[in-house]
Amino acid sequence: MLTLSRWKVVLVLLSVLVSLVFALPNALPKDVRDSLPGFMPKQTLNLGLDLQGGSYLLLEVDTEALRVERLNNIMEDVRTLLRQEQIVFSELAVVGGRVTVRVVDPAQTAAATRVLRENVGTPLQGVVGGRDIRVTAGDGQRISMEFVPEAFDAEAARAVEQSIEIIRRRIDELGTREPTIVRQGTNRVVVAAPGESDPERLKSVLGQTAKLTFHMVDESADVAAAMAGRVPPGKMLLPSEEGQGPLVVDRRSLVTGEMLTDAQAGFDPQTAQPTVNFRFNGQGTRRFGDATSRNVGRRFAIVLDNKIISAPSINEPITGGSGQISGSFTPETANELAVLLRAGALPTRLNVEEQRTVGAELGADAVAAGQLSAIGAFVLVLAFMVVSYGWLFGGVAIVALLVNGLMIVAAMSVTQATLTLPGIAGLILTLAVAVDANVLIYERMRDEVRAGRTIITAMDAGFGRAMLTIFDANITNLGAAVIMFGLGAGPVKGFAWTLSIGVFTSVFTAVLITQVLLAVWLRVARPKTLPIV
To answer: Taking 60 as the threshold, does the pLDDT of residue 1 lie above it?
Structure first.
């Protein structure tokens, strides 16, 4: 096993060279990295929030607001269905987490119940009635509709997952490197954005639902009566950001932001004012074209999160599938709105439960402390190995340890895994544990020499017989790291990832590199005794 095979030498040299190339950018200034040839790697270690500073937010997905929105949509569906069936009704409202309606003619109650059961809600397998809404006929011609509990729980869980994905897209648009976005509990999301020092900017981007809809304006409605609480059925009163007062618009939207394919900040060629230019997909283009063709001369409202940001008149059919949103924008707010529209609307609003900011100075202090800890650990390991096994064998173990650290840095730079303070702890633990393999090998060699074996036989047995124990110990460490990575979050994952990389590099360096170096020494020096005995 101690033979100096050519493939072993080539593998060791190639591994060290590749690791050096990928770890080198971490030691170079930014201007030097930028001037490197295109084929050279330029990625450096990706420092986490606790090492480079940034913002931390704990967000709560407002599932109760989602329930209210769904119930309001169901109420409008009920209104439309009963009118289509010419069923006279009254007292349609959302009351106590359910939609209730009273059928005026008792003879139509059964027909109304049947229509609502067949059409209200979303089809769902495995529940009574086959839909996520339970329709119940009560006394006095009154019909009530409420969510099937397990159906809404599943919808709330989907809303949380969708919110996480949209949060990720929005932060990616900001250019933040390796944000940490993880679910906490049933309806909370933790966002850690390294390098983002302004939490208010982050809150403005993440906290806005960015639900864009287009509605026809009802010019015949009495705005004063609507402001007094007498809003016509099927309409809603929305405030305007243009300073023109509120408007009454159709509750049903013409098109929604989900039908957008692109949104970019720009400038109006006539007024030079900032605008947001958008483009619809095929479905949105058809619906918007049909709506503007039927309503030439009327106004339509562009609504963002229940606020009218623009209400232009339709001078001619708009069939090209693109348009422009103008308003009281600055270049920054226009770009921010374009970012939100491209990332997509949140299914419901997010409430900020907690926010923290880690300053760059504190992160720099943490990096310095981590470096000092790593150097201290290395010095202690160096002293132990030299005292226990002499300069030769101890030095070989230290060389393997240095290559181990080099390979870990290179691997984390290539994978762009986030290095956090717990990750530095994992790195230090890896360096301390890495020499265990050398200790096992060297102690086995001592035992073999004491038993009367020759130097070559003793060294060969040291590597061969200690190998099973080395693999067993490292597989156990790897299993623990995989469990922490799968079940943990944030700092725990950073620790587990560093530890996992260290397991592979430790086995490679402590066994193969040590073996090659000692084989070279054995061939060149041809010793009569082992220095460690």
So the answer is: no
